[in-house]
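Late entry, written up from scratch paper. The run itself happened at the end of the previous shift, but nothing got recorded in the book at the time, so transcribing now.
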Amino acid sequence: MQFLLLCNPDDSLFDVKAVERALHSCPQFTNFRCNEFDLIECEYNEPDDWTTIRLGRDRETITVDSTRPASLRAVLLIQKALGQPLSFFDDGGTFDFTFSDIATVEELEAAMEKAGWG
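Output as recorded:
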């Protein structure tokens, strides 16, 4: 399964409290938990789709399972809630870019394609 990754453009670590606040600010993020691998794990839920979000213990990346539309909407909500530019790439190295002003899934998909995806 392909997954998406977010990180800080300057390679700094994510602030756990800031990520928690960002995720809790949107009611679609639910089922929060912590496990041996992740400081934060939760689900992003839509009526017909969902994905899992993880902030690993290394705090370097936020991982979003899959590339389905719900995953892309989750990426946009996370960036907006954090209020800062984020580097965005996939696990296969197909694309890699930094964004801060993308508002829709269609715009995000276009940026992904321009950067080499699909």
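The chain has three helices and seven strands.
(Scratch paper discarded after transcription.)
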